[in-house]
Predict the 3D structure of the following.
Amino acid sequence: MRILILSMYLSLFCFSCRSTKKMNTDKSLNNIEKSTKKEISTNELKKPKSTNTIIKNTEHYIDVFKDIAISEMREFGIPASITLAQGILESGSGKGRLALEANNHFGIKCHQWEGDKIYHDDDEKQECFRKYQNAETSFRDHSEFLAHRSRYSKLFQLKITDYKNWAKELRKAGYATDKKYPEKLISLIERYKLFRFDQLETSKRVNKSDKKFERGQYEVKRGDTLYSISKKYGMSINELKRSNNLKNNILKIGQILEIKSR
């Protein structure tokens, strides 16, 4: 009898251990499953960062982005008025779908783009547009898009205060298909007096026309443009291009440029 009771006790003990282990295993699996679901959910929610500022109207758009436009003007030679007017027009003052979902403020299509993309109806249905991490990246890509493509080279021969011809040349170079694109940009620039931001650059520019430089060489560094180098040495972009037999505005880091004295 004692042997029978002892056997029953041992059986119950083993069963209890197995049940506890199974319950613990099931609990661990549930935790892993929940963790995996959480990780997948987090990854799915990762989207490009956009400006934290909710744009209220066009005046607010100008106030938020004017400093970026001025900074890009000083580095690339693109009038801040043109940059802001294009941003307002192309993004609907920051309220358009491309601006809200892709931080694309200038309607720049993919064109050999290897980054993230978004598809949107434009001239044709579901065209490919560039998708940026933030608005600042969109402004920088806009500057590089114009500065590094030969078809826009005529723009950089214009004065930085000549916003009217900048607007017209953008249309001629193929930036937009809308025949009234120049008039729309000019209208925005004059309505909101965006040309005042271009004058900030000319007022700070040092007159180097009478300064002489010895003949020498210059090594292109990261961030250099023909515009920035020409201003540094008191030359025009055309002079710099002629001196170096350049057919477009594209420069390479480490490239050696001949700088002629005046």
